[in-house]
């Protein structure tokens, strides 16, 4: 009897998922998901890797996935523990010698799979460029612009696959949950946590494209700091594998062909391509991304040393209202707009002169849409390390542009009661930057 484990981490969906398909060279398949506490409860640079909010959301998602299998009269093993050890124990129990999984981008997760000693069969189901479209890492362009131009104008991506649940899945129902995992669930499960599952993903996708037609104004609304339909919010679902990027891409293309195509419909595909580029960048350079200068030699993995300025930034107490409001929103909701992320990152790196890796670790802790490649590569991009030039933002100018009446700041900083744009005025403890001065004068002139 030939058996294989099928690991559904980052593959929590029924659509476009080759992990569900028949495997001709096996008699039985054993479905499993693993939540590794080390990826949530340990620390890096003195920062816990996940907030309770992010841990609870991930746990609820895995429990929901297990329940979906139960509804199909199938068994999904849920293990909470060291990824490598958990998979080895299940493989020994079922006498399986192969592990089938979604190909990860995070070096840590790839190493965990290799350490099992099992034969690996990896499907890259979360990339746009799969199979024969897979880029050659050795010749991967050094900039996104070059990568995009190499692929356009006739960009072809992997079409989503119609896959039926294989009849090969088999398991002992008594092995679905062990006592250690049950104990962990009893400590951390929160029924009110956000449920970022496939059903929510497909509903959001459909409404954004077809009902609200928000895809038509995406290029112009995506820089908004909040709002229900200004941005897609697909990031939540792409990050955990409950939404296929190929399916999302195809839906946009279908809209362009059936309804209309404009710069906004193009731009959302442009953003998906950015995500794609970072995935291949992470695979190309691996753990070198966590060096102080990313993969630029010499590699320096020494831990950054934060100071009081970083602590205040983490609390949303820097005294610069536009930055603080965005941080408070993140702490409360587990999300921040792309425009907000760029501004708070720039302020931490350039004005507060902190190591960019501290900010990346803080985002890893709090973002419900945390994705290793997108998070760490975007921070490196702002910092100007790796193959990027530094990108410093003017927070006063940005505040006037994206929160001209101060409504966003007052929403997240209720202690700020100043009317109009003047709410953006920095507190006395903030060191004002020379390049802010023209925009500070503009603030004064508006009073």
UniProtKB/TrEMBL annotation:
Keywords: Chromophore, FAD, Flavoprotein
Names of required cofactors: (6R)-5,10-methylene-5,6,7,8-tetrahydrofolate; FAD
Name under which the protein is recorded: DASH family cryptochrome
Species: Rheinheimera mesophila
Keyword Flavoprotein: yes
Photolyase/cryptochrome alpha/beta domain segment(s): 2-133
Family: Belongs to the DNA photolyase family.
Keyword Flavoprotein attached: yes
SUPFAM superfamilies according to UniProt: Cryptochrome/photolyase FAD-binding domain, Cryptochrome/photolyase, N-terminal domain
Co-factor binding details: Binds 1 FAD per subunit.
One Gene Ontology molecular-function label: FAD binding
């Amino acid at each position: 009897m030939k058996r294989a484990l099928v690991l559904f981490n980052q593959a929590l969906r029924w659509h476009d998922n080759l992990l569900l398909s028949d495997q001709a060279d096996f008699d039985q398949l054993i479905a499993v998901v693993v939540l590794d506490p080390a990826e949530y409860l340990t620390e890096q640079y003195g920062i816990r890797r996940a907030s309770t909010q992010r841990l609870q959301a991930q746990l609820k998602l895995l429990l929901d996935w297990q329940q979906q299998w139960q509804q199909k009269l199938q068994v999904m093993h849920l293990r909470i523990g060291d990824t490598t050890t958990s998979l080895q124990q299940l493989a020994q129990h079922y006498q399986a010698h192969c592990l089938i999984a979604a190909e990860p981008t995070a070096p840590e997760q790839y190493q965990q799979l290799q350490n099992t000693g099992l034969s690996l069969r990896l499907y890259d189901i979360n990339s746009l460029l799969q199979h024969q479209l897979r880029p050659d890492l050795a010749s991967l362009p050094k900039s996104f612009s070059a990568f995009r131009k190499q692929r356009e104008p006739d960009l072809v991506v992997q079409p989503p696959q119609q896959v039926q649940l294989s009849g090969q899945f088999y398991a002992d129902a008594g092995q679905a949950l062990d006592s250690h995992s049950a104990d962990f669930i009893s400590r951390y499960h929160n029924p009110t946590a956000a449920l970022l599952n496939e059903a929510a993903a497909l509903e959001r996708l459909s409404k954004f494209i077809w009902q609200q037609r928000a895809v038509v104004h995406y290029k112009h609304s995506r820089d908004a700091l909040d709002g229900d339909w200004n941005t897609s919010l697909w990031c939540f679902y792409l990050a955990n594998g409950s939404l296929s990027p190929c399916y999302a891409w195809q839906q946009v293309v279908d809209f362009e062909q059936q309804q209309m195509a404009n710069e906004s419909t193009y731009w959302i595909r442009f953003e998906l391509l950015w995500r794609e580029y970072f995935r291949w960048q992470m695979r190309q350079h691996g753990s070198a991304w966590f060096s102080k200068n990313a993969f630029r030699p010499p590699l320096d993995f020494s831990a950054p040393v934060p100071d009081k300025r970083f602590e205040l930034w983490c609390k949303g107490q820097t005294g610069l209202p536009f930055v603080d409001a965005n941080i408070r929103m993140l702490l409360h909701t587990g999300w921040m707009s792309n425009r907000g992320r760029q501004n708070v990152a720039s302020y931490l790196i350039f004005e507060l002169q902190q190591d960019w890796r501290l900010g990346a670790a803080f985002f890893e802790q709090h973002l419900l849409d945390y994705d290793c490649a997108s998070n760490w590569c975007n921070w490196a991009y702002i910092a100007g390390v790796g193959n990027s030039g530094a990108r410093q933002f003017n927070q006063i100018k940005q505040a006037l542009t994206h929160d001209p009446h101060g409504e966003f700041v007052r929403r997240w900083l209720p202690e700020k009661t100043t009317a109009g744009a003047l709410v953006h005025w920095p507190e006395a403890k903030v060191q004002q930057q020379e390049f802010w001065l023209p925009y500070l004068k503009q603030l004064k002139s508006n009073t």
